[in-house]
Amino acid sequence: MGNAMVALKARLADLYNLGMASAVLGWDQRVFMPAGGAESRARQLATLAKLHHEMGVSRETQDLLAAAEAEGAGGGDGASDDAALLRVARRDLDKAIKVPTSLVVEMTEVCSLAEEIWVKARAENDYASFAPWLERIVGLKRQYAAAIGYQKRIYNALLDDFEEGMTADVLDPLFEELKQAAVELAGAIRAKGQRGRDKILKRACEEAKQEVFSRKVVADCGFDFSRGRLDRTVHPFCTNFSPNDVRITMRYDKNWLPGALFGCLHEMGHAFYEMNIKAEYEGTPLAGGVSLGVHESQSRLWENMVGRSRGFWEHYYPELQRTFPRAFKDVSVDKFYQAINAVAPSLIRVEADEVTYNLHIILRYEMETQLLEGKLSVADAPAAWNAKMKAYLGIEVPSDREGILQDVHWSGGGIGYFPTYSLGNILATQFFEAAVRAKPEIPTDIAGGKFGGLFAWLKENVHQYGRKYPPAELVKRATGETLTTRPYAAYLKRKFGEVYGL
Ligand code: ZN
Questions:
Q1: Where are the domains of the chain?
Q2: Per-residue pLDDT tens for 192-214?
Q3: What CATH architecture applies to the domain 168-500?
Q4: Which of 163, 267, 303, 433 is catalytic?
Q5: Is the pTM of this model over 0.90?
Q6: C-alpha 476 to ligand 1 mean position (Å)
Q7: How many CA atoms lie within 13 A of 64 on its CB side?
Q8: Residue 125's closest CA among 336, 362, 461, 403?
Q9: Are strands 238-242 and 245-250 parallel, antiparallel or unpaired?
Q10: How far, in Å, is the centroid of ligand 1 from the Cα of 54?
Q11: Is position 116 annotated as part of the catalytic site?
């Protein structure tokens, strides 16, 4: 390694450490911090964010990167880790440098305040108090997109922050296909008239026992508690301070077992990605998930393809019955499996089943593009939301609280983010199918409570690379295919055709 590369890596390590220090503060804020600490914590986080941005775009960082580029990464073929590091560092720097510090500061402040406003507006079902803030955020996002620059559609500038290389022109036909398939499948299920299959999941299950059971399951799957923690929070998430310190969080509801059960598997899937990135990448921009779509594919794979599979419960159901005898002693494993895979259009995205989930995403995606392109006003947004819920899911929205105000993302500036949830669903099936092609014993292993083969395949083919390859290239290398809905559509048809006897 040349001297310039050594110097650049030292600089990037400082940036990495600042980012991780922020993550510790953020985790503490959402897990342990008393309410009284909120304002001081916001100032501490803002200071770190300012230092990070200033150091990231400083003359010194620019010169170090340019010198390392001039020196070359070695290896010749451009496929070395150092070549990837230069590519990723250049991408991050070129984007960051286009955004004026004043805009970064304004976005941080407005979004931080808007989140507070949103919490109150949602609680009080008062869209009017949130609307001016959404207006400001959409305006700031337009400014941000203009600063970054984009091809054709303004949405592409925002999407690229979460999913490198993805564009609205690719998403439009993809989502149209998903929409039609979901409406058709949900309609066929509705025609069977078997509502209420999931009622048994509302039976009381002691929270402390839910936690014990969840801890055992994630440990069985491969979560290493010497390199991670599971704590309680209000809105579950996964974060990490290094590949050797990954934190997942959960909330428990006595009368809704699936929330924690599948929530833990979901966050564990995110955690595996971060835990399994090559150790040598720590301290560089390569140490992280390559995109939110690929990240979400890991959580959805463990949550749905493993956790909601028949085989998984052949192994775990007897133990679940022993843990919660009052709730499940009269319920067969078949009935339980049907309950955890019950399909019914619902108002709330995070509670949506696998069949209707993407309709929630498509609705938000369509509204985001229209808001950004000026085709929909903030004032008309709730009515547009309700009309789409009626058209896609066939349900009336009783209040904005259960409608447009339900998700935190827009208040925090997360516009351009939602499509990655659907991309995650699609990619989960592509990765899972490729893993089973390579190791046909995986489904039988899962039914025997053995997860090592799947874990190892994901580590080898997805996790270890971090941000080394752009998302599309990673998918191609791991699965032999580009992004395609074929395995996903086939999976949904097969699984729910069987669950509902279609
Ligand atoms: Zn997730």
A1: 3-149, 168-500
A2: 988 889 999 999 999 999 999 99
A3: Orthogonal Bundle (1.10)
A4: 267
A5: yes
A6: 22
A7: 19
A8: 403
A9: antiparallel
A10: 30
A11: no
